[in-house]
């Protein structure tokens, strides 16, 4: 039953990310529900299931987007860093999730911007990029109260 719930959650995340959030962007900035889900699952789950979840979800996100597999690489690295940090963290899981979303959202955007700028000859506007960092981080932080209880329930479901 847990596998069915997890598969339903993955489908819901992908539909929301690719269909709904793509239409609800603000000046070209949209939240990354996949990143928030990967972070929440890494905090609430165990090492191997969270790695499989991050790899599968990010790979599906890459298949539905540009396909450079940047999302898969970034989200697997983020997941492994979080699993290593989580074991030594003594606070609340929710606050850890919110703090890690606030940390990794800008880092992911910076990595994407560097790859697009240097390898794909993209244009760069420092003012818009600064706005995008702040807006995307706030969007993702707004998703944490919605995503974390669902993911924690999926991780504890027997």
Give, in order, the helices and strands: HHHHHH
Mean pLDDT figure: 87
Report on the biggest sheet.
none
CATH class: Mainly Alpha
Radius of gyration: 15 Å
This entry's quaternary arrangement is: single chain
Explain what you see.
It is a single chain. The chain has a single domain, classed as Arp2/3 complex 21 kDa subunit ARPC3. 29% of the residues are buried. By secondary structure, the chain is an all-alpha fold. Helix content is 80%, strand content 0%. The model has no long low-confidence stretch (mean pLDDT 87).
Any chance you could write out the topology, listing elements then pairs?
Layout lengths: L1 H22 L9 H12 L2 H18 L5 H17 L6 H27 L6 H31 L2
Helix pairs in contact: 2-3, 2-4, 2-5, 2-6, 3-4, 4-5, 5-6
Search tags:
158 residues, mainly alpha, Arp2/3 complex 21 kDa subunit ARPC3, 80% helix, 0% strand, globular
Describe what is shown at a glance.
With 158 residues, the chain is an all-alpha fold.
